[in-house]
Amino acid sequence: MAVWIQAQQLQGDALHQMQSLYGQHFPIEVRHYLSQWIEGQLWDAIDLENPQEEIKAKRLLDSLIQELQKKAEHQVGEDGFLLKIKLGHYASQLKSTYDRCPLELVRCIKHILYTEQRLVREATNSSSPVGSLMDSMSQKYHQINQAFEELRVLTQDTENDLRKLQHNQEYFIIQYQESLRIQAQLSSLATLPPADRQLREPSLLSKRATVEAWLTREANTLQKYRLGLAEKHQKTLALLRKQQTVILDDELIQWKRRQQLAGNGGPPEGGLDILQSWCEKLAETIWQNRQQIRRAEHLRQQLPIPGPIEEMLTELNSTITDIISTLVTSTFIIEKQPPQVLKTQTKFAATVRLLVGGKLNVHMNPPQVKATIISEQQAKALLKNENTRNDISGEILNNNCVMEYHQTTGTLSAHFRNMSLKRIRRSDRRGAESVTEEKFTILFESQFSVGGNELVFQVKTLSLPVVVIVHGSQDNNATATVLWDNAFAEPGRVPFIVPDKVLWPQLCEALNMKYKAEVQSNRGLSEGNLVFLAQKAFSSSSVNPEDYRNMTMTWSQFNRESLPGRNFTFWQWFDGVMELTKKHLKPHWNDGAILGFVNKQQAQDMLMSKPNGTFLLRFSDSEIGGITIAWCVYVFFIGERMVWNLMPYTTKDFSIRSLADRISDLNHLLFLYPDRPKDEVFSKYYTPPLCKLDVFVFVCPVLCHGLRIICLSFPPLQLKLWTDT
C-alpha cells in the first residue's frame, strides 16, 4: 500500500504516465481499493517463462477476484451501491480476460508495480538509488530481479555469439578442406607430363595462396571471437557469483536466522517460494552458461588454434562448476526443524527440501535422505571435513526418507514423519555443565547426480542444536539452553559456540519474545516488568531502567546459580510464570488484570493508598509457578490498615477451581487495583454456581503479632496460611 500512497502524490507528466498504466485490462479502481492486497503478494515469485507457474498465477487471479467480491459486498449506502455494482463488474471482467491466461495478469501487475516504483523513485529526487519513500524490501527484490534480467540478456548475448562462432568455424573447416583438396591436386601434378603440369600449376598455386591467406585471416578472427566470448562469460560468471552471494549469503541466511528466532517465539520465518524461485533462476542461468562453455570447449577441440583460450576455458569450466556446486549444497535446507528439546522414545518429525531439485530434474531419480544424530564435537569435525563415520551419538528409528516431487508446488522435499530417538550416547561433561546443557544436532545427508550423471553431489545440512532429555522434569533446563543458543548464536559460528554473557537489553528482548509466544498474547513485558526482572536477576533495588542498560548477565546467573535465598534459578522462576500464565491465566493477562511482576514491598506501597478491599495479583517470589493475591484491609483489633498476601495459587490449585471463581468467592476483595470493581473485570469468567458457598475470613488474635492470616472455607475452595510470598 505504501507505493500506491506515494503514487497518488505524483504530479504532471509522472502522474499521466502512472494513469496510462490502467485501462480495461486492469482498472485503476481495482488498484485503489485492493492496494494493500496487491502489494502484499509475491508477484516476483512467479517465473513468467515457465508454463508450470500457471497454477500459481491462477491462484492469484482467483484470490484477486475473491478480494474484489468481498470489497463489493461490504459497500453500503447510496454511494456504496454504485461502487458495489462497479467492483462486481470489474471482478467479472478480470475473470473473463485472464481466466485462460493468468500469467498475463501477473505480467501486467508486475509491470504496473515496477513502473509505479520507478516513477516514485524519480519523483523523490533522492541521491540514493531508491529514494527515501521506497519500501526497502520491495526495492531489494526489485534489485534482485533487475540483476536476473541483466543475466538473461548477457546469457542470450553469449548464446548468439556462440552460434555465430560455430557458423564461422564450420565455414572455416569447409575452406580448410578446400585448401587440402587444392594441395592434393598440386601433389597429383607430379604424375602429369611437364606441359600439362605447367599449364595447371599456376592456377592451383594462386588458388592455394588465396585460400591460405583467407584461412590465416579467419583463424585470427576466430581466435578473437573465442577470446571475446570467453571474456563475456567471465563477466556473466562474475555477476552470477555476485547474485548468488546476495541470495544465499544474505537472503537465505536471513531466512535461517528468522527460523532460529521462531524457535524462541519470534515471528514465522516466512515461506520459501520466492527464495526457491530465485534459486531456480540461478540454477537455470548457471546451467545455460555451463552448456555454452562446454560447447565452446568442443569447438576449440574441433579446431585447435594456438593461444590462451584453452587455459581460459579450463578456468571458466572450473568456476561454473564451483558456482553450481555452491548453489546445490547451500539450497539443501531444513524447512521444518526437529524439536530442539528432544525426548528419547518420543516420535518427532522434520522436513528437508532441495530448492533447486525441480529445476535440475533431481526428482527424475529421487534421492534418499538419511538422518543421524551427532554431538557438538562431531559437528565441528564435520565442518572441518574430518571423518566422523565411526563415531556414534545415538540411534534414530525411521531415519531414511525418499525425496518426493510435488508437481503443483514444484517442491522437492523429504518428510520425516515418524522418527524416534531410541538411545543417546553422551560425552564427558565439562565442569558444572549438566546434561541439559549438552547440545546435539540432526545431520541430514543425501547424494544425487545432475545432468545425466555429469555432476554428482553429496549434500549435508545440520539442524539447529537439540538438547536430549529422558524425562519431562528436564524440559525446563533444556529449554533454557535452547533459548540462549537461538537468541545469541552468530551466523557462521563454530558449532555451537555462544557468548557466555550478554547485555541485559539483549536478554530482555529474548525473554519478551518467548513470553509473548508461550502465553500467546500481544501483551508482552512492559518496561516496568523488565525492571522487576532486572531487580530479581541482579539483586538490585534500582527502579531506573537506564541503570541496567550496560549490565551483563552470564549463563551461570541465568540458569546455573540459584537466586539469593532460593533453591531455583532466574530462568526456572521465569519459566514457571510462563507455564502458569499459559495454562490458567492467559485471558486475565490479556485483559491487563494481572500486574504479575511486582514484589511484596511494591504491592504494599501501591495498595496502602487505596480503599480497603483493593487487591492486585502478583507472581510469587518464593514459589515457582505461583501467583498470590495482595489486598488492603483494616485490622480492627490493632486499629491499623495493612496489606495481606494469600498463599500462592499454583497449577494444582487452578485445576480444582479457576482464578476468577476464587476471586468471586472472596467477598472481602472489592476492587482490582487501582479502582475497578472486581465483577466488572472477572464476572465474564465466573462459573455459574450450583449452590452458594458461604466464605468467611477471620483474623486469629493469637497469630496477630506475625501478621499472619488464616482464611477458611468449605471445599472446593481452599485458602491457606501464608507469611512469606
Describe the structure.
The chain is α+β, with helices and mostly antiparallel strands and 725 residues long. 50% of the residues lie in helices and 15% in strands. The chain is built from 21 helices and 20 strands. Strands 1, 3, 5, 7 and 8 form a five-stranded antiparallel sheet that branches. Strand 17 (671-672) and strand 18 form a beta hairpin. Helix 8 (136-188) packs parallel to helix 10 and helix 10 packs antiparallel against helix 11 (309-330). The longest helix has 69 residues, at 194-262.
Q: Kindly state the number of beta strands.
A: 20
List segments where confidence is low: pLDDT < 50 over at least 5 consecutive residues.
126-134, 691-725
Structural class: alpha+beta
| Global mean pLDDT | 86
Coarse morphology: elongated
Largest sheet: 5 strands, antiparallel
- Strand content is 5-15%
Helical residues, percent: 40-55%
Measured between the Cα atoms of the first and last residue, the distance is 52 Å
> Radius of gyration in whole Å, from Cα?
37 Å
Count of helix runs: 21
Oligomeric composition of the shown chains:
single chain
Give a short overview.
The protein is an alpha+beta fold and 725 residues long. 50% of the residues lie in helices and 15% in strands.
Please outline the helices and strands:
Layout: H1 2-7, H2 12-19, H3 28-33, H4 35-39, H5 54-73, H6 77-98, H7 102-124, H8 136-188, H9 194-262, H10 273-302, H11 309-330, E1 332-336, E2 341-343, E3 347-354, E4 368-375, H12 376-383, E5 394-397, E6 400-402, E7 404-406, E8 411-424, E9 440-450, E10 455-462, E11 467-469, H13 475-488, E12 501-503, H14 504-519, H15 527-538, E13 552-554, H16 555-559, H17 570-590, H18 600-607, E14 614-619, E15 627-635, E16 640-645, H19 651-654, H20 659-665, E17 671-672, E18 676-677, H21 678-682, E19 696-698, E20 710-712
Parallel strand pairs: 2-11, 14-17
Antiparallel strand pairs: 1-3, 3-8, 4-6, 4-9, 5-8, 7-8, 9-10, 12-13, 14-15, 15-16, 17-18, 19-20
